[in-house]
Amino acid sequence: MTLAGGVAVLLSLIAIWAMAGGDRRVLSYYALLGGLHLAASGAFWVISMSGPADAVAYFRRSELSDDFGIGTQFILFLLHNLREWTGASFLDCFLFFQIPGLLGLMLLHKAARAMAEEGFGTRVLLLGLLLLLPGLHFWTASIGKDSLAMLAYGLLALGLARARFDWLMIGAGVLLYFLVRPHVGFVVLLAMVLAFLPIFGSSRPSAKLVGVGAGIAGAAILPLVIGFVGLEAAGIDEINAFVAERQGVNQAGSTSLDLAGQSPPMRVITFLYRPFFFDAPGPLGLIVSVENLALVVLTLILLANLRVLMRLLRLSEMLRFHAFFALIMTLMLSQTLANLGLAIRQKTMVLPAFILLLVAVVAVANRRQEDRLRDLAKQTGQSVPAE
């Protein structure tokens, strides 16, 4: 690590202090997140040094490419300029790229607190535990797109969670997603159209404005997205051929799965919940299985409170956005990915939406229980429990 790496670590510490906003409990929690994130970045760096990895390819290719672009070219552009300005080493670049991922996780925590209308307590305790999952740190702490994608979703989540939409955050989140993964940026705009226009529930005037703007932006970037993913002739046959091609491309590797031989529902289950102990490929697979167990529990909680969730979705365009994003991304990725390792990594984009939906449901359930306890206390003449 050179001086540039030390600067990256210092920037992480400054970000943690600034995001905590003077709250000591939040500062302690964000420091824990930051420590895990730095550890994950170091672990990813060690693994990258011992075998072929996307981070190594990005680093090598950045020496020869300084053109601005979208997707992979955007990562190369950032890397090239980072190395040009700071003389950053391979490890230093890891330390710089983990900063957006850490910021994204802290923004998600802030968004959940705003949604639950609670400073730092039981309604967001489960969120605090879920944000400690190793995968959320591991994949977003390395050179690549996942770190920036996490920051993009964090900006969107907090911008939408505020009483008055933060237009700057929302716009920055959409733009960053488009620069990193244009097709996912289009999914974000599509989810906004479905969620904010009064199609599936009530919408505020400001939300309708977001929906209209998202529709216009989506129509504008659609030709770019189609060209980016290679679907210039977007007929049924071409789409089927594209899906088959993507499954074939992702089939390589020891952790590949034959999605072509599975039914669509089974592909969704495979994407969300595998590996699951019995088919875990080695020690890392067991760690992922623990995370998938947490996702199973999360899913069961949402299903157990399905009526509450559906009511919230009708009332809140913000929650509808998270639900549509998670639904579209799950269906899209589960039908095109055949490599288990890649599926595990790509699932990182879907987890924040599921987690925020869980926080909203748990917050409502807790409030209902508190209301029942207060009513019972009043009826029995006991003191009313404190808020």
Can you walk through the features of this model?
The chain has helices at about 5-20, 25-50, 55-60, 70-85, 90-115, 125-130, 135-140, 145-160, 165-180, 180-195, 205-230, 235-250, 265-275, 280-305, 305-315, 315-335, 340-345, 350-380. The chain is mostly helical and about 375 residues long. Helices cover about 75% and strands about 0% of the residues. The longest helix has 30 residues, at about 350-380. The N and C termini lie far apart (about 50 Å). The model is unreliable at about 230-255 (pLDDT under 50).
Summarize the structure.
With 387 residues, this protein is mainly alpha-helical. The protein has helices at 3-20, 24-49, 54-61, 72-86, 90-116, 125-130, 134-138, 145-161, 167-180, 182-196, 205-229, 236-249, 264-273, 282-304, 306-315, 317-334, 340-346, 351-380.
Outline the fold blueprint.
Layout: H1 3-20, H2 24-49, H3 54-61, H4 72-86, H5 90-116, H6 125-130, H7 134-138, H8 145-161, H9 167-180, H10 182-196, H11 205-229, H12 236-249, H13 264-273, H14 282-304, H15 306-315, H16 317-334, H17 340-346, H18 351-380
